[in-house]
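Database export, one record per block. Field names are fixed; values are copied verbatim from the stored entry.
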Amino acid sequence: MKKTIFLLAMCFLAVIHLPAQESQRESDLKVMTFNVRFDNPGDGINAWEHRIPLAEKYISKVAPDIIGIQESLHHQNTDMIKIMPGYQYIGTGRDDGRQGGEYSPIFFRSDRFELLGYGQFWLSDTPDVPGSIGWEAVLPRVVAWARLKDGESGLDLYVFNTHFSHVSDLARRKSMEFMSEQIRKIAGDHRVIVTGDFNITRGSELYDDMLAHFYRNNRLQNAELISRTPAVGAESTFNAFREKVAARVIDYIFVSDHFRVAAYQVDRFKQDGVFISDHWPVWARVVITE
């Protein structure tokens, strides 16, 4: 009888211990989306060479685990790797699938994540053709993706990063719909984070359609809207290198319902009259769960 009671007690302890084991299968990570502005010497005081120290200072301070970058040229990626020790990136130039033209790379901490897979597709009717231009866009547009295993939780996730057309609502709508299809095809029902400069203004009809489409097809939500603490500085993400400009939000972070969003912030970072970029960096602190 005593032996039976002992065994039952041990079973009970094992059962009540399970939630503690489950809680270990989650961890915080900080995700950023950041249009760094391509290296344009015509930007004067805000040219890339003057902004590199700001980027180094800011990224070192915020210490994101994953960054979706937009507009970077190959040498800018090289510069960022130099000022961001411990990171690596995936992605290629949109013009030729090698080093030509702007990138939409995904940077991540190599000491935390193991790269399980990666790829890139063009937002066009020929997504595997480098340099292809879709619909009414006037430039090639790409989506880079990576599958990462988080060393802290042991869980893996997909990250997709993009930069939509700046000239056409049709191109942006078709890009959103096609990207959604590709996310479904590549990641299925897995954990997904999406970062990007979508050039879709918050509050527009297309923005509402994007929210509905991403949620219906991919269970993705705008991290700002589900943050458990009030979003900070989220009135605008675009500044055009000017002190006063009409508020406009076009940069977003989306997460699937495998994540909780603990915080969301847009940082207006400049120093001695130099802007970090013509977009403000946006970050979210999310909890990845099993």
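Remark 1: Confidence is low (pLDDT under 50) at residues 1-23.
Remark 2: Residues 68 and 193 are 10 Å apart (CA to CA).
End of record.
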